[in-house]
Amino acid sequence: MISDVLKKPLTDDPYTVLKTRLISQFSESESVRIRTLLSDLSLGDQKLSQLLHKMTLLAADKISDDVLRLLWLQRLPLSTQQILTSSSEDLPGLAKIADKILEVTGTLPAVDSVSTDSNDRISKLEARIEELTQTIHGFSFPSNNSRRHANRSKSPSTSNRRKLSSLQISATLSAGDTNGRLFVRDLHSGFKFLIDSGATVSVFPITEKDRGNLDRKTVLFAANGSSIYTYGKRALSLNLGFPKKFLWTFIIADVSKPILCADFLSHFGLVIDVKNCRLIDLARRVSVRGFRTSQPSTGITSVYGGNQYHSLLLKFPNLVNSSKQVKDPCHNTTHCTMTRGPPVFSRARRLSPEKLAVVKKEFKGMVEKGICRPSNSSWSSPIHLVPKGHNEWRICGDYRRLTL
């Protein structure tokens, strides 16, 4: 890079020529410095005056002091920005004040903030890839050698007889299986739940407290077509022995035992292994043991089989599910509320023990369902509890100050 200058000096001042060549070869270009100044430079664990010094070197008199001041303030903590914005000091004076504020408030976190939108997209992609990977690992395919060996070892008549025998066994099990049910125990409450994939709606037995809450709008049907009266809904968090808990909203019905049906199994990706008395979580490749029962299938459904709309509703099971789960939207439309000024906040207010228990339970359920998440931001709005029927409460948010 500098061999031509060393071999043949062309001027009487070789030092200046060599210095100019080295700077031009190894220093960053002007576009790189501007890009670093605008986006790549962060505060980290250095002093605020050190950050300003680096930005001044990168600017190299190419950017006005007003623009440099704005870029520097944007990289400071929010509390420091609010103090320095109204100050008329020059940049060196602001840097000294900022260092003093930092000494009083303590050290800054060394972790920089990242883009929430990009993190959300990456997290969703990783979750989808992990889900596909687990699904693929769940399948086992016989090798080509084993298939060729099996085809050579069986005569046509033996193969046909075994196929017919297998079909007859499968038909017998599906038509009159009375021993293909399992019970699993909820470790939290001690209830034994019947697993019935032949029923479509998960139910919980009625208690004496619920008998006065008859829901005449919701009626379930048994396998023989008889009606089953319902008495509202109940959200339960089940600990079946898996690493995670399962939050589900059950329909309270006139049944003798709690039942986990096809809606619950399908949503959480659980598979029944009747032979080994296990309930398997395919996504996490873990299982829990149950115990076999001769209880026949209840066949509970929310639509009577003889109804003309039964086949149509079977195509859309989410319309009659008791638990409303959050799903990712199939579009890119978002709704935002434009705000100005400092964050809107509301002071904490005491709730009665009854209301406090309702609010804690409701927010815990929304967090487990993915509807909301804990936050450390300064934004907060008051909530109101409205009494509803069946001795229930509805939580409402007061966002009037946010939209003013």
UniProtKB/TrEMBL annotation:
Domain of life here? Eukaryota
Q: Return the PROSITE patterns for the record.
A: ASP_PROTEASE (PS00141)
Instruction: Region Disordered: list its residue ranges.
Output: 138-165
GO BP annotation list: DNA biosynthetic process; proteolysis
* One annotated GO molecular function: aspartic-type endopeptidase activity
For this protein, the record's InterPro entries field holds: Aspartic_peptidase_AS, DNA/RNA_pol_sf, Peptidase_aspartic_dom_sf
In this chain, composition skew of type Polar residues spans 153-165
Write the protein's name.
Answer: Peptidase A2 domain-containing protein
What is the organism field in this record?
Answer: Araneus ventricosus
List the taxonomic lineage.
Eukaryota, Metazoa, Ecdysozoa, Arthropoda, Chelicerata
